[in-house]
Predict the structure.
Amino acid sequence: MAVSTITRSNGIVISKGNRTIFLDPTHAPPSGTAFVSHAHFDHARTSLTEVLASRETAFLAGKRGIKYGSFKESAPDLKLLDAGHILGSRGLLIDEEIFFTGDFVGRSRAFLKKAIATKCETLIMDTTFGRSECIFPSVESVVERVNRVIADLFSRGIPVILMGYALGKAQIISHYFSHWDPIYATKSVLEMNEAHSVLGVRVGEGFREFDEVMKQGLLDRRPWVLIAPMSNGNGSFIRSLKEKYGVVTIAFSGWAIEPKYASSRSVDFAFPLSDHCDFNELVTFVKECSPKKIYTTNGFAVEFARHLRRIGFDAYPLGRNQKELSDYFD
Ligand SMILES: [Zn+2]
C-alpha cells in the first residue's frame, strides 16, 4: 500500500505514490487530478481544463460560469459515489482506501437519494452539523408543517415567499411546494430549475417568472407563493414586498434548528430542511464506512472528532497541527 499524505493547500490535496489528487481545488493545479464534488461555489471554485466530476456537476457549474474543458466521471482506481447533497454531488473513493465525502446527506429527499457509504481505511468527511444538538426532524414532518402554515396564510389572502439558496435548496422547495397556485419563482431559481429539467429531473410545474408577473400587475391578486433565493428579511427586496403586499417570509436551512435563526435572518418563519447530514446521520455514516482513521472538516469539525474519539475511532480535525490537537484532545 502506497503511503499517502493529506494536506490542505489547494483544496484538500492527497498525495499517494506518484499521484496527486486535488479535492475541490481553489485554483487549477499544474498537474495531477482535480476532483470537484458538486456545483456550489465553495466547492466548484475555479474553471479547469480537465476535471473529475459527475456530468450533472459539470453542467450545473457551467451554468454558473465555472467552465471545464472536459470532464470524466471515473478514472482508474477513482470511483465517484452519490453524496445526496444536490443534484450531481459525489464523494470520491481512491484506491478503495481513502474516501472523501464532500458535502453529503444521510437521508433521501425529493429527487435525491441518500449518500452511499463504503468501507474505507481513511475517511475525510464534512461535519457541518457535527454537534450532538444538531438533529433534524423528518423531511415529511417539515413539509407537512410548512403546508399548514401556507394553507393558513392562503385562507387569509396573504402571499408567501419561500426562500432557499438558488442551486439545490430552491429545487427541493420547488419539488415539495409547487402544487400551490399561483406559484412564482425568481429568474435565478427558474434557471436552476430549468437546468435540472435538462438533466432529466423535473422539480415542479406551473411556475411563472416573478418579474413578468410583477410587470403585468398580477401581484395585487393575492394570495400567491414565490420561491426566491435566500435573503435577509430586512433587505430592500423583501421589505418592499412586505410593504406593498403584506408577504410572509419562510426560510429553509439546517440552521433553523436554532431558535434564534428566524429572528437573526429577519424572516417570519424558518424550517430545518437541510442539505447536510445531521449529527446522527454523521455517526451512522462513519460506522457504515468503518474507517481506521477519520479526518473531519467544516463546521463542528473539532467537536465531531472529539465525539468520534470517545466512541472509539481515531479521528482528527483536518489540517490541525499536533500542538493544537493536544489542546483539543487532552
Ligand atoms: Zn454544497
Summary: The chain is about 30% helix and 25% strand. The mean pLDDT is 95. The pocket of zinc ion is lined by residues 38, 40, 43, 85, 103 (CB under 6 Å).
